[in-house]
Design goal:
Shape: elongated
Structural class: alpha+beta
Bound molecules: zinc ion
Strand content: 25-35%
Radius of gyration: 24 Å
CATH topology of the largest domain: Aminopeptidase
Number of strands: 21
CATH superfamily of the largest domain: Zn peptidases
């Protein structure tokens, strides 16, 4: 069976069409052109705003003009992550999605169900001529994954609706009424490199095979962080064979748990066997420590040409100490909501070499003051290591409103359709809701929900097929019922 034949076809055929259009964050010309053309063909008023968002407007069914205008919202870009051996080019290649049992997946890359499924559902609602509804608007935002630039750039007055359904959550049956804000923490330093000592050999040590994943949604699963593991290796390598550090590259996305890292080190020629033993020991130790969470962590070592320079010992030690000392993972759970992460940080990217070191971390919290406390704690550690620390991209969380009319309508729809109650939650990730609310002048009533996706932002990304009919039925029901 092809994915475009899955039920409901109205959604899957649009999702399939989206997989054919390259749309990595930062390169949206193709998807914008596609959506504009699609709207034109479907006879829907469609336009692009200055921020690159695509907007659509569909008038109410006759007699329902007096209802509140509903905004359906999703983002058009996708995270371009792939495995080290994948030949995929995100700028040109379609995503070859396929069915595997109850899941739709693809080969060695992100799938783009985050948030292609939301966009596909919006297209299905917009082109449906049988639905009866009040005034409808759609907002398909640009570059959500790299900093919610489309949402930030939305102009007041672009949207008329004040009730918004954000279709960018990842577990069917959950209604999100709040989300985490975030802040980027960047620590950097410059240093004068030294020549490696005599009688040394250079080695490249490579760590691979970690699961990675979303730095918010999956931060509480205890997954290994490639930069933290590499920090542990480097500390031992310095102790055991006084390894010199010439280069470090770990992670490549600020919002993903890093899956791989490598270092270039120099080691006294006579210490070769000690180094080999250490690499083997680390690999065994980590696979034991992370058994059931990770599978197949590999740490390998290969000879490499002698680098011209490396970090002085003091700088090397400061950087390793900072990597080991900085907080990574869950810092606090929400005191009033069990098992829900409030504040976390992720040591996303480490780059050392050529006289420069840069660490990038993303801190998240639904509580703005705890977010700043976490960011300042990190700043303390990096400052002790002699680094300069910069905060950027700060945005607030979204405060839950338990009395929202939209929440009441959606809970009722869910119960009517499926005979059970939806779970009401707060997500530990940035949703665009808070930013769209602010950009539209405030006063928005919002909910975020979606079908079931696993491991978004990683090459394991997959979507649970049976969740799509339920997700789409719920969207349709709310659109048909309207909101008081
Ligand atoms: Zn998303």
């Amino acid at each position: 069976m092809k994915i475009e034949e899955l039920s409901p076809v109205a959604v899957w055929k649009n999702f399939h069409a989206l997989t054919q259009v390259p749309r990595p964050s930062g390169h949206l010309e193709k998807i914008q052109a596609f959506l504009l053309q699609w709207g034109k063909n479907a006879g829907i008023e469609t336009w692009q705003d200055e921020a690159g968002n695509i907007l659509m407007r569909k008038p109410a069914t006759k007699g329902l003009e007096g209802r509140k205008c509903l905004v359906l919202q999703a983002h058009m870009d996708m995270v371009p992550q792939k495995t080290a051996d994948s030949p995929h080019d995100f700028l040109t290649d379609p995503i070859p999605a396929y069915i595997d049992g109850d899941w739709v997946k693809t080969h060695g890359t992100t799938l783009g169900a985050d948030d292609g499924m939301g966009v596909a559902a919006i297209m299905a609602i917009m082109e449906d001529k049988t639905l009866k509804h009040g005034p409808l608007e759609a907002l398909i935002t640009a570059d959500e994954e790299t900093g919610m630039f489309g949402a930030f750039g939305l102009k007041e007055g672009e949207l008329q609706g004040k009730v918004l359904l954000n279709l960018d959550s990842e577990t069917e049956g959950e209604l999100y009424i709040g989300c985490a804000g975030g802040i980027d923490v960047t620590a950097s330093m410059q240093y004068l490199e030294i020549e490696p000592f005599e009688n040394r050999k250079a080695w490249r040590v490579t760590l691979k095979g970690l699961r990675g994943g979303h730095s918010g949604l999956e931060i509480n699963e205890g997954r290994a962080n490639a930069n933290k593991l590499m920090g542990r290796f480097m500390r031992e390598a310095v102790l055991v064979c006084n390894a010199g550090l010439a280069e470090w590259k770990g992670g490549n996305m600020r919002n993903a748990i890093p899956r791989d890292a490598h270092v270039v080190i120099t080691v006294p020629t006579r210490s070769k066997s000690k180094l080999m033993k250490l690499v083997e020991e680390c690999q065994t130790l980590w696979n034991n420590e992370f058994a059931t969470i990770e599978s197949g962590i590999t740490l390998t070592v290969e000879p490499i040409e002698m680098p011209e320079s490396e970090a002085p010992e003091e700088i090397r030690d400061n950087l390793i100490n900072a990597i080991l000392g900085c907080q990574n993972g869950v810092m606090r759970y929400i005191p009033t909501i069990p098992d829900t992460v409030e504040t976390s940080s992720n040591l996303s990217i480490v780059e050392i070499g050529q006289g420069e070191a840069t660490f990038s971390l993303l801190v998240r919290s639904s509580c703005d003051s705890m977010k700043m406390f976490q960011a300042i704690s990190l700043k303390s550690v990096f400052t002790m290591a002699g680094m300069k620390v910069k905060f950027s991209g700060s945005y607030s969380g979204w405060q839950p409103d338990v009395d929202s009319p939209l929440l009441a309508a959606m809970k009722e729809s869910y119960r009517k359709l499926f005979g059970t109650d939806a779970k009401v939650c707060v997500v530990h990730a940035g949703l665009e809701c808070g930013i769209i609310n602010a950009a539209s002048g405030g006063g928005m009533d919002m909910i975020s929900f979606g079908p079931t996706l696993m491991s978004p932002h990683s090459p394991d990304e997959r979507v649970f097929i049976p969740s799509i009919p339920k997700f789409y039925d719920l969207v349709r029901h709310v659109v048909e019922q309207g909101v008081k």
